[in-house]
């Protein structure tokens, strides 16, 4: 038995007519539509967020579609891996990122420093962090921002 499917011209026209209309893009990834966020998807994220296994909770923490109360609960999770996933999630509120900037775990604070949406006041606290790693990430991000903006990094200007 062959796995090749032969469609009639009428079937091909019907398939083409029912295909979703997308704006043209040169980016191949942009050609694919994400499934709609439904109430059942949100319910599944809520279930993942309370799972006994931290790796499953990390999945919920990484979701861009979790409700704010789920992000809030996961930002207080006892597992630092879950909090790290919250810290790098760009959809998390500034208030959560501010609080995580004082997290006891160095990796969590490092991911807060790398989050593009971290508030300036939290970033300043991280620039003075006790951890050399966190301070280094803050410095790296600042140099990267200068280079991206076309400015010369401070170290190169000396």
How far apart, in Å, are the first and last alpha carbons? 72 Å
Low-confidence stretches: 154-158
The ordered H/E elements are: HHHHHHHHHH
* Mean pLDDT across residues: 87
Principal-axes geometry comes out as flat
What does the oligomeric state look like here?
A: single chain
Strand content: under 5%
DSSP summary: helix tally: 10
Q: Tell me the radius of gyration.
A: 22 Å
Largest sheet: none
Q: Which secondary-structure class do the elements indicate?
A: mainly alpha
Describe the structure.
The protein is mainly α. The chain has 10 helices and no strands. Helix 5 packs parallel to helix 7. The longest helix is centred in the last third of the chain and has 17 residues, at 132-148. The protein starts with 8 loop residues before the first helix and ends with a helix.
Layout of strands and helices, then pairs:
Blueprint: H1 9-18, H2 39-49, H3 54-62, H4 68-74, H5 80-88, H6 94-100, H7 106-114, H8 120-127, H9 132-148, H10 154-157
Helix pairs in contact: 2-3, 3-5, 5-7, 7-9
Q: What's a quick, concise take on this entry?
A:
By secondary structure, the chain is mostly helical. The protein contains 10 helices and no strands.
Write out key terms for the chains shown.
single chain, 158 residues, mainly alpha, 10 helices, 0% strand
């Amino acid at each position: 038995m062959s796995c090749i499917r032969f469609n009639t011209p009428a079937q091909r026209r019907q398939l083409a007519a029912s295909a979703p209309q997308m704006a043209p893009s040169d980016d191949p990834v942009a050609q694919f539509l994400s499934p709609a966020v439904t109430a059942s998807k949100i319910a599944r994220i809520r279930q993942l967020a309370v799972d006994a296994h931290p790796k499953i909770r990390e999945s919920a923490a990484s979701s861009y579609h979790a409700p704010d109360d789920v992000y809030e609960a996961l930002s207080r999770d006892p597992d630092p891996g879950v909090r790290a996933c919250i810290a790098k999630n760009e959809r998390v509120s500034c208030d959560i990122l501010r609080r995580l900037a004082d997290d006891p775990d160095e990796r969590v604070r490092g991911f807060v420093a790398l989050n593009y949406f971290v508030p300036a006041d939290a970033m300043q606290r991280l620039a003075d962090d006790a951890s050399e790693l966190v301070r280094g990430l803050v410095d790296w991000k600042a140099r990267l921002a200068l280079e991206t903006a076309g400015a010369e990094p401070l170290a190169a200007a000396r």
